Protein: Phage baseplate assembly protein V
Amino acid sequence: MMLELMKRLRSLEEEVLALREELEENRRAAANIIRLGVVSKADKTTVAVTSGLNKATRIPFFVHCAGRVSHYRRPSVGEQCLLINLGSGDNLNNAVALMGLPSTQYPCPTTEAHEVMTDYGDGMTEFYNLDSGKLTAHYPGGVEWYAPTFKNHGEIVDHTRSMQADRKIYNGHKHSSPETGADTSNPAQQQ
Structure:
């Protein structure tokens, strides 16, 4: 009877050890399902990400739309991301990188609830105030518009005056005749 009891205890011990190994494997796999990482290299459609001591390469990165409407922004080296491991286990090369986590290197351009801002770098920003409806844009390299038609529903103004004020000046201006000194008539073609 003692021998049977010893065999049974040994069998139970082996089962507990097997369950312990399985539990450790599951814990390790669960720890790799979602990980915080940092981009170490960025290519056209993939990134290399370092997460702790692990490095995952050729990971596709998330863009917020990629269908009929699409958007592209290559991630920056040093940018934080979430790695979602689709294959589970220890191999992070089956992951997808979700970009856009603010960090000390890449902080939020604004944190106000009524402000929406995109900072493109090098002084180029677009800032929209949800309360006032005002859009403020800084384009240090200039702006080019390509459109078959253009409608302006507001006044176009430069640093001196509006286009309407320029029209009034042009339409009302006269010149003096060089021969007689008399004023000429207003321009025949009004603007």
Notes: The chain has two helices and eight strands. The chain has a mean pLDDT of 88. Helices lie at 2-31, 163-172. The beta strands are 34-42, 46-51, 54-60, 80-85, 95-101, 115-121, 124-129, 135-138.
